[in-house]
Specification:
2 copies of one chain form a homodimer.
Chain A (H helix, E strand, L loop, with lengths): L22 H19 L5 H8 L3 H7 L3 H13 L7 H5 L6 H16 L2 H12 L3 H25 L8 H20 L8 H15 L7
Chain A binds a DNA duplex through helix 3.
Chain lengths: 214, 214
DNA sequence: AATTCTATTGAGCAGATGATCTTTAAAAGC
DNA sequence: GCTTTTAAAGATCATCTGCTCAATAGAATT
């Protein structure tokens, strides 16, 4: 109506208006910002607001993604891909290393990934939305991480109550909940998350009478 | 344009069109359906779709709620109010009963409440949206349930590592994660959730060397 | 410096969405 | 049975939203 609609603001970088990026670079820029943006406001965040944050026009987004769903797919891909390192199954089952050490190493690395603000929130948003990626990720996690972990526990367990898959999920859930509290419920971060993880692991091992040095 | 916009469908109840309800009753009907609806699709669910499910016109909703936010507030109120029974703090600290029994009783009742599909999802949606109700609920939970629980644990603990608030959160989180897996991530429900809760509690007590009969 | 190529903008459309207001008709009072 | 009251429907508005497309201008090539 007024001819002033959707004028892009200055680009944050260097405070100068930077136009005409190479397509691959611009595409990456859009996806990166979209990850932050959707993590903050949810997948129903509006493309005009995203464009404003990018300092470009809204129509530019549709030059790189045919539909908003396609952009969301790119966000999913960026966030989900490479999250589960393929060498963990091997390291978790390396019996030359004490189980406690293996667990500490795994959850030290893994928590650094999943306690990330963007991952945690997009994972939750996509879970609520019923995205199949979410369920597939958890199935995969169960198959390549938790099930092997159960097998390791079974080998070492000394108690008469045999370990069950649910016990591994309980260990995992108790740790994941640290991130949920922080990033979804916005509660303060524990002073030393790594210590809490270690205690959760020790609680788990003790329950099955597993010696820490084993 | 065509004069056919937004004609309400038949009301599900008795298959008959039921019109002109007493205001209090209609209001309750709207809130009840809104709870289900928003739990399913999120708080950005559209009022027209809600009206369709109710079998009424969209404008009727705004006859009972000035704005959509006001409706959402009513949903929050309905879902949050009375969730934390006021007599739990007392029962959790009743030392004439063994701690394991107290914990089992509490989490048996509490999990029945929080493992509810609607609660779990609306709690998560409102948490992601940053609703203050969410943080206030968790603060309250920490104050009246978890902190007293820590005190009880401290009294009975036999180990040299003193229990910390984070340990109680870990117990709680591991249990809450059962519901999250089921209702947010849509994974299958554990066969016997009560058994898993019992195991989580035993794990917790064992870690602090607390005798189950104590 | 002129030309070409194409990343980006500017303008706008069609349908959706929260909200308003007038009209209709179900039920209570007489 | 007629009147009054008001719950609910019907119509519509202003704005928002995903998306399209022609016009513009930045940069590489010649």
């Amino acid at each position: 109506m007024d001819g002033l609609t959707e004028r892009p603001a200055r680009n944050g970088e260097h405070g100068a208006t930077r136009r005409r990026l190479p397509p691959a670079e611009r595409r990456k820029q859009i996806v990166d910002e979209a990850v932050r943006f959707f993590a903050e406001v949810g997948l129903e965040g509006k493309t005009r607001e995203l464009a404003r944050r990018l300092g470009v026009t809204q129509s530019l987004i549709f030059n790189y993604f045919a539909t908003k769903d396609e952009l969301i797919d790119a966000v999913y891909e960026k966030v989900y891909i490479g999250r589960l390192s393929p060498d963990w199954p091997e390291r978790l089952t390396d019996r030359s290393v004490p189980i406690r050490e293996r667990l500490l190493a795994f959850y030290s690395e893994y928590s650094a990934l999943i306690f990330e603000w963007e991952w945690m929130r997009i994972f939750m948003f996509s879970g609520l939305a019923g995205a199949s990626l979410n369920q597939r990720y958890l199935e995969h996690l169960g198959d390549v991480i938790l099930r092997p972990l159960l097998a390791e526990t079974e080998v070492l367990a000394h108690t008469d109550t045999p370990p069950k898959m649910e016990d591994v999920w309980n260990l995992h859930g108790g740790i994941a909940y640290i991130g949920i509290r922080q990033h979804i419920y916005r509660m303060p971060e524990p002073v030393k998350p790594q210590d809490e993880i270690a205690r959760a692991i020790d609680k788990y091992l003790l329950f099955f009478g597993i010696d820490k040095e084993q």
